[in-house]
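Replying to the earlier thread about multi-chain prediction with a worked example.

Input:
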Amino acid sequence: MLRFLNSRELGVNDPLVFYRAESTRRVLNLGLSEEKSVEKQFTGNVNTLDVDLIEKRYLLAGGADGYIIIYDTFNTSGSVKYTCPSVGTIALNNRHRHKFHVDTVLWYPLDTGMFTSSGTDCLLKVWDTNRLKPADEYQFSGIVYNHHMSPIATRHCLIAVACQSSSVKLVDLKSGSATHGLKGHSKGVYSVKWSPYNEFTLASAGADCKILLWDIRNAKGSLLEFDQYNGKPPENTAGSDCTAHSRPVTGLQFSSDGLWLVSCGIDKMIRVWCTSTGRKTNVDIPLAYPSKKTAQFAVSQGCSNNLIFMPNGKSVDVFDMTTGKLQYALNGHFKQAICCYYHPDYHELYSGGSDRNILVWTSQTHNNHINYIVKKTVKRQKLDTQTLPNTTTSNVEQTVSSATADNWSSDEET
Amino acid sequence: MAELDETVSKQMSGLVELLTTSGKPTLNPEIMKKFKKICRTSDLYVEHGFVLLMSQLEVDHAEVRLSTYQMMDELFVRSHLFRELLLADFDTFLELTAGTDKKKPLPLPKAVANNMKSNVFKSIQIWYNKFGAAYKKLELGYEFLKSFQKVDFDSIQADLELERRQREENERKLEEARQNRLNKIDQEILDTESEIQLSLTVVENGIQLLLPHPDDFCIPMNDEPGTSEILNKCKSCNNIVTDSNITSLNGKYELNSVNKSVAGFCKSCDSRTIEDEFHSKKHKQCSIESEKEYPQSSTSDTKLCDQGYSQEVNQNDSHMDTVNGNNEETNDEEGSDEMSDVEDEDGHDDMEGVDESGMNKEHGYLDPTFSLTISVGPVSNNLEETEDNTDLIQGVREQYRLIKTKFMPMVKKWIQVLEENNAKTEKKTQVAELKTKLEDAMKKCVELEISSFNHRKQEESDSDDDDDDFEDVPDKDGYEEDIPEHIKLEAEMASTSNTTSKGGKKKGGEKKVKRTKKPMNASTKKIKQLAGELVASRRLLDNDDLDSALLKSKTYKSNSHSFQDELDRTNDQHQSQIKLLEQSSSRTQKGKKQSKIYNSPSTSSSIASSPSKASSSKTVKKDITPNDSHSTTTGDSAKKVDCIADDSERKQSLLDRAPVVPYGVDIEHWETPENITVPVKNKFEGASRFWVAEKDETETAGCSEEVASLTRRTMTFVGDFEPVKWKCRAPVGNGKLCERMDRVKCPFHGKIIGRDTNGMPSNPDDFKSNDKVKDEDIVSSSKGKGKGKSTKKSKEKKNKYANLTDIKVKEDTGRKRLEAKIFNRSTLRRVNKVLDNAAMKKLSEKFGNQFNYSLK
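Result:
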């Protein structure tokens, strides 16, 4: 890092190089944050997470029983240890809440005064953040699995909604109505995502194992279908259907540059697609415990090798997007991890699970360094006083400064 | 990164296996300590240990898991790395130990698993309290358990709190008790310290008086007019004393005469007592030096005076140096060991120097090679107890006794209590000082043999007591003379009267025996009288048949039950003979213990009065039991007689016991049993000429049987029937105890053994053997079903982890057994067959006439 800083100072390196190097370093060293935590308010699963794009400050979380909670992730307290407080809660006492699970929550990309949510009660709600009341509601015929707004859209204000019906609905917030549907799937649609590169490009994935890429201006049909065999299906496969996965596709995520599309399905595979050619890359990542429902996973931004954060059972597994290698696993949930969100500015990961927790994963680089120093000193101490257990001193240390407690209490040996 | 040592890793895995397969609810602390020691050396070993433990935790056996969890708990509390590792896999850990995943229930045995679960929750609570702040994951896990598993951590916390409080309370109580004890001891010390000090001073002073320290010899006698006078008077004799002393040093054989002369001279001195003592003392010294032995018998009192005197002399007269030296030396020799060696040496130096000069002066020749060697012989510290110092010694002795029996144990107890209760060091040192003082005092006493005085005294008294116990039996010969004539006559009369009133007076005679036995000590008079009687009876006899007399005397000492036989046999004997025996017995017992005499005369009298049975005097002789006690004359013939007598007596006793049976065939042909014949049966052969009965083939066989029936005798059992008073009391399936009352062995539960209230064998050995029996039973019973081999084999296989509970063993319930019987394939087939037949019968009855059914 110092080398990078130095070369940056001299102007040898592009700022992007430094940025990339540092963010990669951090992302590769994520661990359960000792300092930062999120207030526990959920009484059920945490299904979905989103951070607003304006300030990158407010964490929106939706869960079971219509719970939607807004957390403030800015640490304004001044102390290192910080628990993100909830600044707005839609709980059981809110009569406007969703009746059942909230499956997707989403900030309005341009303003934190508004967010949208959808759930199993077949409703898409547009909320006024300040009043915590829905400004608008859209009823659908089936369960709304997912909805998404384009983060970069300037010329339209459409929400793509994936619901049980086979067509992807597009809701125009300006007109307050579902303008049209995109028909191409034969079964229900599980996931929709707008491209972060092109405001009119939309990807959708459904129960029919297909992933379709749309240009919403073209109502006739999809731009392309992603084919898992890249046009060369093995001979024994029956049917002419062009499928992305062998089983229903549950999750979609664009890379931050919009060039790649990551999908996962309940066939226990993660696939990476090139959005321009529609071809599958050579990355086939097996997944042990894929979620049965729509999976919200995250892809890192600005790294040399971007990483996929995929909830996999109780852990969140981190894969290299280009090589498909498992980098590490984040163990912290005691039940199924359901969703995760990568915070591009903090290089943090938020993950929610059915153990009602939202966990914050921060880079452990500095911690590692501290640990290293501490270990060294403690080892020296140990050599000095091999026989004397330093439990008492360490306990004192622990009480004195809670931040460094673990480090000091760490290596006592009796 | 350093490499793991392979041997150490192997050792670690061995330890893990050993610990986890122990099957015990707690870990073996020693092995665990070893394991911890290894883990402590490096984090690498911690990591390795973690891997080992995690893999061990996955074993499907609750006992293994419990032990593994306990090991993990130990390491978790200690190692940071282990904590991190475990917390990284915390959910797995919880799954495996607390059964958080419903799909993966905890393994059998259930009780152990539940125990493990509760223990895990408890220790997680402890961990959380201790490390929760530092380990996020632990906190999360804790919360998870709390919210999802509904683990009542509050109650666990409360329990822990309660435990802690109880522990504290206990500690406080202990501390209180300790304080109380200390206070008590303090009080005791305060109370008795003065007493101890007093007794110590008494001992000290007493010893000081008995045996003063050389430093204390300087008694300023000059101040007293009386003593100075004496001194003046003694002056003249002093010179002589010196002379005599020196001569004694030179010529040893002259000693006695010189000393005597000295003594004689001194006797004439005015200063009577002191000088006398002094010279007698001198005399002793001389003898000591010449003979190099110290049968010292001077009392401390004389010594005291003596020494005081000599000191005085030392001051006054330069010539007296020798005396002084000698004196001191002797003192040293005689006296206590505490006397300083310096003093001793001084004495030697002094003496030698003056010796030489003295010799020069006296004899006028100089022997430069002359050297005087004084070898100090074994020192005897005895103090002679005289009238003068009796009180003193008595006092010291009393104090010694007090110290030994009372203060010493007390102080020892104090020290022990103080040690146990962590008392202050000052207190300890104080008591220790006291102890050393007491020990010193005791040592002194022992060295001066004041204590042994005590013993000697006691011994003396003991021996006196012993003497008292024994009656002084005067010499028989002397005794005989003293017997008055009328007593002799009386004895004669008594014996004749006894014999004449045969049988009837036996009881009375026995009574007499008792009477004489009872008042042992008091009835010496009576004994004497009896002895007198015996002697008298002897006198009356003309012929002195010593042999028979001797024999008889021995029989008297035979034990009572054979004696009874004796009685019967001897009844017939002539009166005079009895008398003879009596007298001889009294003779043989000359000078021996009186108690034996009690018996013999009295028994002889009872013999005389006992009822008679026909038997010759010869048998009596044979019946005599061998006895080596105090026979005055024992020839070879007598020994032989003894031998025969032994046999015959046995025979006699057997005969006495033998039952009387009726006369029969077997007795008739006792010597030739083959001659026994069965009485001939009459067969109806002559009834018809043609109808001849078939030859009985079993005739010959039956012959022997009949013979047997003839010779067989039935004896009725005449012993007492003892009803069985115990029950088997082995636990039975219905929770009760076996009620069978067998004498030795219960047919169901084996040998009858001691059992407690629950029916468990009270003796552990029994327990084991019982188990074995059971096992054997099971094996044999299952062998009957053809399963024995397989069970045995499986047992052997399982032997690897013998300590673990076998979870594969199916519970043996009544239902299982019934199921095995009812759902047996053959049973089912049989039942089905019967049912089918019944159905077929029904069908054929109903539809038998229809052709389609008839096909079946």
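The mean pLDDT of chain B is 65.

Feel free to reuse this layout for your own posts.
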